[in-house]
């Protein structure tokens, strides 16, 4: 059997790590500079959370987590914000997070993994830093491929367009076709069995199944919202002043309700706030609960996000869930890597001996 050892850069609460582990990749450690991710990362994934900055954390220390393996894997999803906000292909190089892909490339050069995987928003494709990342990998002898996929095609009950890059020292590597799902999981299948909640309530059996309060006006608005509709369905008196103007039409993707028999819209870091997107529950008059967000991102129902010893911040948890790589996409990456390793098994075993 081929022994894999993987390190996850920018690991967050472990969406990517979770999916890789489900697919049989041995993730030994993740590194992130946000201490609020530590508990969930470790308790769910049996991997070490390293609190540190990818820019400065010593590569030799990270490489210790590859010990005992035949194949060294380095994966990572650097923050997407500098690229998702990229207007007309103009890079916002003043954003301090912009250069983190260079730090990722620096780690590849210093650590020399056998396999690399990177996930980000599709807009990154037009950024100079991505071109440099690609040519840097090729210059180090990697075979590289990347594709833009919709997470919904991989079993995630959510529309989420993402770029996935795979690189290998062994030979050509691609996202496996076997990882594609021939079926789209719906919102109903993902969250339809959860206990009902009113706005502002928390479930007695799951503290994560908890949703925000709504103001009186927002309660009236959601009662007048239809699944898949917009605020155009409301009576005029419920419209905020800015929406009454003609230009208000540009805000149509907010204050919506999800449809039961469709996938969810792309979850952001504020998916729990009614008014920031089409995140109204399909039939209950409230925004999504944190657990519903986690399930729509394809986290397992048992994934623990709340440290019982620390007061929890709803805002932090929504951010961690909204930022995560959906585990089902991580699983697709794992299957692709395993397929590739099976193809190159003879070479890998030969280097072991
Ligand atoms: C897109 S999220 C990663 C999500 C994670 N891979 C998952 O699947 O749950 C990006 C992460 O990068 C972290 N981050 C930002 N700058 C960093 C740095 N310089 N060093 C380490 N982590 C950093 C953030 O705290 C955030 O958790």
Task: Report on this structure.
The protein has 13 helices and 7 strands. It has a 7-stranded mixed sheet, with helices on both faces. The protein has 353 residues and is of the alpha/beta class. The longest helix has 17 residues, at 327-343. Residues 10-16, 31-34, 37, 53-55, 77, 79-80, 97, 100, 323-325 line the site of S-adenosylmethionine (SAM).
Q: Key features?
A:
single chain; 353 residues; alpha/beta; Rossmann fold; seven-stranded mixed β-sheet; 13 helices; 31% helix; elongated; binds S-adenosylmethionine
Mean pLDDT: 92
Assigned CATH architecture of the domain at 4-181 and 325-352:
3-Layer(aba) Sandwich
Q: Describe the sheet with the most strands.
A: 7 strands, mixed
Strand content: 5-15%
Question: Summed up, what is this model?
Answer:
The protein is of the alpha/beta class and 353 residues long. Helix content is 31%, strand content 12%.
């Amino acid at each position: 059997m081929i022994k894999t050892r993987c390190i996850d850069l920018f690991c967050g609460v472990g969406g990517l790590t979770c999916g890789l582990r489900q697919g049989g990749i041995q993730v030994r450690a993740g590194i992130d500079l946000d201490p609020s991710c530590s508990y969930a990362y470790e308790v769910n994934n049996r991997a070490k959370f390293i609190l540190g900055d990818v820019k400065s954390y010593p590569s030799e220390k990270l490489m210790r987590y590859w010990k005992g393996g035949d194949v060294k894997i380095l994966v990572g999803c650097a923050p997407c914000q500098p690229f998702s906000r990229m207007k007309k292909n103009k890079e916002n190089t003043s954003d301090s997070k912009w250069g983190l892909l260079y730090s990722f490339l620096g780690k590849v050069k210093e650590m020399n993994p056998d396999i690399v995987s990177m996930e980000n928003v599709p807009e990154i494709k037009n950024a100079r830093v991505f071109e440099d990342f690609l040519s840097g990998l090729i210059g180090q002898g990697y075979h590289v491929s990347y594709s833009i996929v919709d997470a919904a095609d991989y079993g995630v009950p959510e529309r989420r367009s993402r770029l996935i890059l795979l690189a290998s020292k062994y030979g050509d590597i691609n996202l496996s076709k076997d990882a594609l799902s021939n079926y789209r999981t719906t919102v109903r299948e993902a969250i339809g069995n959860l206990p009902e909640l009113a706005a502002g309530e928390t479930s007695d059996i799951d503290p994560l199944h908890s949703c925000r309060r709504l103001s009186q006006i927002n309660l009236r608005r959601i009662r007048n919202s239809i699944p898949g509709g917009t605020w155009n369905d409301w009576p005029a008196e419920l419209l905020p002043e800015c929406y009454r103007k003609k230009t208000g039409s540009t805000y149509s993707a907010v204050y919506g309700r999800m449809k039961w028999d469709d996938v969810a819209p792309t979850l952001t870091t504020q998916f729990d706030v009614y008014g920031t997107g089409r995140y109204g529950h399909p039939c209950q008059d409230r925004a999504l609960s944190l657990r519903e967000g986690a399930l729509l991102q394809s986290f397992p129902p048992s994934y623990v996000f709340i440290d019982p010893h620390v007061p929890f911040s709803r805002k932090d948890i929504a951010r961690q869930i909204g930022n995560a790589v959906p585990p089902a996409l991580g699983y697709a990456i794992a299957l692709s890597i395993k397929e590739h390793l099976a193809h190159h098994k003879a070479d890998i075993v030969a280097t072991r001996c």
